[in-house]
Amino acid sequence: MASETAAEEASATGPGDAVTESRSQMLRQLVRYTVIGGSGVALDMVVFLLLHNWAGMNEQIANVLSTTLAITNNFILNALFTFERRDRLVVRFLRFYAVGLTGIVLTDLLFLVFTDALGIDANYVKAGSLPLVLALQFVLNRKWSFA
After folding, report:
1. Where are the stretches annotated Disordered (predicted)?
2. What values do phi and psi take at 86, rounded to 5?
């Protein structure tokens, strides 16, 4: 009975409405994902600076800890507010963390090409990499981590 009602509602709204709703939902998710990602970047930087500059921790160890904290923060917020998924949290977290690592690898590759090989300032490369990394991670997380 419930499936008949859902089917009737879907046919009454038409296929164009479903596409519009899907695009609208994806845009809302992208905005939330971007805001949450921004909070993760800020958290990552603050924790890194505290661990490395204030506590004197090795930069590689400080980076792993700060990045892991930011990825964990972003996963929790995205699970609650962006994709609204609370099932299979361990599997989803492991996938989300793997996607987070792809962003680190992509940024490092861009550093190798643009900073090391071409001499472009690392700050510009980091800033320029953010939209590319954001787009890649959004698609991967939407299709794989929170599917």
Report:
1. 1-20
2. -125, 10
pLDDT beyond 70 at 5: no
Residue pLDDT, tens place only, 50-69: 998 899 888 878 878 988 99
Closest to 146 (Cα-Cα) out of 101, 102, 68, 88: 88
Which residue stretches of the chain are H helix?
A: 2-13, 15-49, 59-77, 89-110, 122-140
pLDDT at 4 over 70: no
Three-state SS at 55: coil
| pLDDT at residue 1 tops 50 | no
Phi, psi of 58 (to 5 degrees): -55, 140
